[in-house]
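Marked as duplicate of an earlier ticket. Keeping the data here for the record.
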Amino acid sequence: MEIAGLALGVYPALVLAFEQYKKGAQYCQNWMQFRRRYQEFIHDTGGQQLFFEGILQDLMCNGPRPFLTGIKSKDDFLGIVRRRSYTGWHDPKLKFVLTSRLGDKYSWCMYQIELIYEIMTKLEGLLGVQAVCLPLL
């Protein structure tokens, strides 16, 4: 009889402990999955930023009539276009240079650059980070 009473007393505690363990394991599994996806997102975003910066540098510093001349490195270029005070994005000469290189794709290209900037600004606000440095359009 005493064994039956002990078993009936321990059984609810074991069920409760198992349920808590299951919830904890599920939490850890969700956290690990989130962490992996977050790391993938950060790597993908970094790659896309490098690609985007390369396109901007090519559009502004290369070609038959580059808009920005005398740029020796990518760091120099990024130092110029990341400054919040940089007004070159609204320069008619830049529009002329890009229009001559892009032709009828100029509007589409500028739309895409503005869209990327808006998305990254929203992402910056959502994640609460201040590390996103994209050109102001």
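See parent ticket for discussion. Residues 119 and 125 are 10 Å apart (CA to CA).
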